[in-house]
Model the fold of this input.
Amino acid sequence: MSGSREEAGTGEIQEGRDGRDVVDVPEEWKVASSTEHFRARVIAGVTDAVVMPDGEVVDRDYVTHPGSVAVVALDERERILLIRQYRHPVRRLLWELPAGLRDVEGEALQAGAARELAEEAGYRAGTWHTLIDAFTSPGMSDERTRIFLARDVSPIPEGELDFVHRHEEADMPVVWIPLSDAVRRAMAGMIHNSQAVAGILAAYAASADGFASLRPADAPEA
Done:
C-alpha cells in the first residue's frame, strides 16, 4: 500500500490536471438574506444566509474590513525593518511590518504603504514592488492585504515628520534584522503576525532571483 499524498483522500491529484489551473478565481454564491449585527469605527459584524450548491441555506458569520497594506522594507545589507506593537485581542507584543488600513478614499495602495512606512518607522523608499497579495483570514473576514517590497530605503529627516504617535503606537520600537534571521524566527514560532510571516517568507523566496520576478508596485489586484 502506498503512502503517497497523491493516493490519499483530499490530497489526490485529479487526472488530467497539472497544476496550471491552481489559481484563485472570483465566485459568489447567492445570499438569501444579510444581517448586520454591529458597526464600529473600522469593522462590522455580519451574518449572511448563503445558498449552498445543493440548495441548503446556511448562516455564515464574518467581519467586514476596509483592507490593509504592509511594507517589507529591505536595506542594502538585506536587513528587514520590523516594528513592535501591542495587539490587545491576542494579548501580546508582536513584531510586525509597517502596515495600516486602506482608509483614505482614492489613495493608491503604494501611496498608502509609503505613508505607513513614513509614519510608523520614519523611513522612505526609492524602489517599490508588489510582493504578495493575501486575504488575512478568509474564513472570518473579507480583509485583503497587499504587501509591498520597498528598497533603497533612507531615514526621513526629523524635521519632515509631523505624525504624532498615540495609543499602541506611542512606544513602538523599530529594529533592522537580517532577512535570513527573520525567516528563522518566523519558522521557530517567534514571529506570529500573519502579514509579517507572509512578507518575510515571500521576500526571502523572491530574493532567489534578485527580485526580478516581482510585479510592479501598481499591479492590479485580482
